Fold these 2 entries.
Entry 1:
Amino acid sequence: MAPNPNQLPVITFNTKTLNRSNGAWQSTSHALRGALENYGCFILATDKVSSDLRDTMLELAKDLFHLPMETKVKNTSDLLGFGYGKYASMPLWEYFGIEGGATIEGTQSFTDLLFPSGHKVFCETAFQYMKLLSEIDHCVMRMVFDSYGVDAKECDRMIDSTLYLSRFMKYRSPREGEGIMGLFPHSDKSFLAVLDDDVKGLEIKMKNGEWIYPEPSPSTFIVLAGEPFMAWSNGRIHAPVHQVAMRTSEKEVRNSLGLFSFMRATVEVPEKLVDDEEHYLQFMPFNQIEFLKYVTTEEGKASKCAIKSYCGVTSAGAD
Ligand SMILES: O=C(O)CCC(=O)C(=O)O
Ligand SMILES: [Fe+2]
């Protein structure tokens, strides 16, 4: 698949492509893996999540941002990017994260905390929506493992250990004198992210340095690989730098939703992905939750590619 800077590859998940005994599974798996290697992301077209559910979720997420600040800050977490976030350095951006967001327990305790008098519709919708996103995440994992010829049991081990962070994000338009940057350029510290939004703003840097600007659509998501997935693949999968910019001059608010995956189990490069030539072992086994803590240290913050300085093997990994 030749990289095309203006367009991301589109991968379709439907009953045909998701049936392992159908030939379409294999061709889709290879295309998906190629997309992650060349672009680090792709557009996922699927009817797995109805547009009604997506609209309802995007609408309900707005309720969170109307809460008083003293309620918002109750959503705390020790993990980077979880909890509630609003930073002076990125004043347009605000987010809420749910730890264990694809489970009813996690979603319920978040709802109880933020809406003490109850918000059944929010809880049920968020759980239903994020659970579907977690199923998409599982399918992506299975296809990647399958395409590399890595044992499905290893994939199950990883999926079973996944801690999901569901995140509700809001970007307001800049006021006079403010910059347009909603979220600064970064590569994700999650394994995978499944992203959804209602207004354009996500910008992804390609390997050749050009940026692409995916258009939101009610029938597509963006699936994006993070640094830990790159390490697991021994450097094959790309973890693209991306950012959010509020370029429009109109008074506009951008809402986005995402499900981010983190492995509790040790992440280890599969033997299949190591050889003596091009793919000597580039990353030592690591714990992704410990890696998240490392990212907040001075060394982690100063590093150009945190996963390489955390567990990269050779000088090829140094910044
Ligand atoms: O808001 C978005 O679309 C992207 C958010 C993002 O990149 C992140 O939370 O890491
Ligand atoms: Fe990101």
Entry 2:
Amino acid sequence: MKLNELLTYLHEHEIDTKENPMITSIEMDSREIKKGSLFICINGYTVDGHDYARKAQESGAVAILAERPLDDLQIPVVLVKDSKRAMAVLADIYYGQPTHNMHLIGVTGTNGKTTTTHIIEKILNVANKKTGLIGTMYIKIADELKHVKNTTPESLTLQKTFHDMREKEVTHAIMEVSSHALHIGRIHGCDFNVAVFTNLTQDHLDYHKTMESYKYAKGLLFAQLGNRFDHEDVKIAVLNADEEASEEFIKMTAAKILTYGIETCADVMAKKINMTSKGTEFDLVTPVGTKKVTINMVGKFSIYNVLASVSACLASSIDIDTIIQAIEAMEGVRGRFELVDGGQDFTVIVDYAHTPDSLENVLQTIKQFAEGKIFCVVGCGGDRDKTKRPLMAKIATEYSDEPIFTSDNPRSEDPSMILQDMEAGVSGEHYHLISNREKAIHFAIEHAKKGDVILIAGKGHETYQIIGNETFDFDDKEIALKAINNRYY
Ligand SMILES: CC(=O)N[C@H]1[C@@H](OP(=O)(O)OP(=O)(O)OC[C@H]2O[C@@H](n3ccc(=O)[nH]c3=O)[C@H](O)[C@@H]2O)O[C@H](CO)[C@@H](O)[C@@H]1O[C@H](C)C(=O)N[C@@H](C)C(=O)N[C@H](CCC(=O)O)C(=O)O
Ligand SMILES: Nc1ncnc2c1ncn2[C@@H]1O[C@H](COP(=O)(O)OP(=O)(O)OP(=O)(O)O)[C@@H](O)[C@H]1O
Ligand SMILES: N[C@H](CCC[C@H](N)C(=O)O)C(=O)O
Ligand SMILES: [Mg+2]
């Protein structure tokens, strides 16, 4: 596409030349520049992309889009007020508006996004739909996986991903939509058909500062959902009726509403719930009838994720029998309440609970079936919301018999300072302090007795640990299996 053609889509811009090069790729990272690229300068949180414009030119960029004039460049410079916004517009156009002709489901909320997107994916696959998935664990196009840094990538990566999905004939895409992405505008240009809300509890206050602005960011997904009545293309907001924030999101959206819940009357509900340590049975009540279902996942939070997924799929015109077949076959998601079986006579669970609410939910669930003591190996991430640390420590001591405070991903912070923040939440309670995560896991496994349950929380599927600037191989499940092996064999 020629530069001038691309620029017709930007309402306000200035350009310093009449040159009109052919653009063969759009990049926001100078390290990705190829011959023919348009380089977009983004002023980031750590560095300013404008400082890399020269490097981009040297690497073959044929044009630059920037927020301020740049000296000593021989290629056209397009000036805009906000390069991130311009990037979203250009990415959408350059990649052929890929979300306009695919069914796009977005899932937002503090906890349960990854799990819910995977349940939706399973249902759509059982319904023979070709799917793409974007989220914390990976970008998945059919069976092909690509690892990513962010849960919800920047608009450029997003639109390119949707374009690749279209090339692979994906008809249904499901994505996790983080509050950061909503706040920064990474999803501008995404034409969602269905938007799903899981829940809102404390996290990310380092970024959003208050729960009110965190809620506002989540609400943007619903506010931006097809704000006109196109009766050929109805947009649907799937909201958790048991969550207070849903009442506000209802006011924020013009879309059709479908609610789900357990406590409050809703369109889709779970009734007569019967939980065991292996699974859950309940009556699934929907606008198209009531059926008894048995799922392999445990915990009330899992029922919420299933109800959200069922609602999203009903909103996507999938028939109820297919939905039920899929949710009954769903085995769970990697690193989410995942059982580690090394032949031991106690239970070991690896879970991604890294917020106060998720930790409380998971421990409450374990309490319902634990025959012996509960061990809880838990830490808190560095360079993240500090105020959740004492809360998580308190919850660990409240719901477990042997809490073991350890490191998560300390990142740039001193691990002992993070532990101090956790300890500030407890006074007089019994707990262990083992900063080295591998040693903490070994400690729990060496001390567990028959019937006990060990929860290893916070890192779930992660196969690394970030300490300082370095990333080390680290897999909770692998380490737990090694410790079980050491103890028994
Ligand atoms: C705070 C934040 O959101 N940061 C994101 C941001 O990074 P940044 O602003 O620091 O970028 P930067 O390094 O300053 O670079 C600025 C610009 O210079 C460019 N650059 C940089 C170096 C170079 O050599 N050449 C070059 O061109 C960069 O490509 C970029 O365009 O832009 C990057 C590229 O898109 C993101 O990967 C990065 O996410 C970081 C990794 C992050 O940790 N983000 C978290 C807070 C986040 O967004 N989390 C949410 C929610 C998670 C959840 O709850 O599930 C998520 O969606 O992931
Ligand atoms: N609906 C839910 N309500 C509360 N807690 C949940 C719910 N679903 C899952 N959890 C807990 O939260 C953890 C993370 O779940 P999941 O990865 O699905 O959430 P997420 O929203 O994608 O998280 P992230 O923002 O880190 O990507 C799980 O391991 C479990 O402990
Ligand atoms: N999406 C979350 C994941 C946290 C996972 C936990 N292991 C940590 O590193 O804090 C975040 O980036 O805040
Ligand atoms: Mg996630």
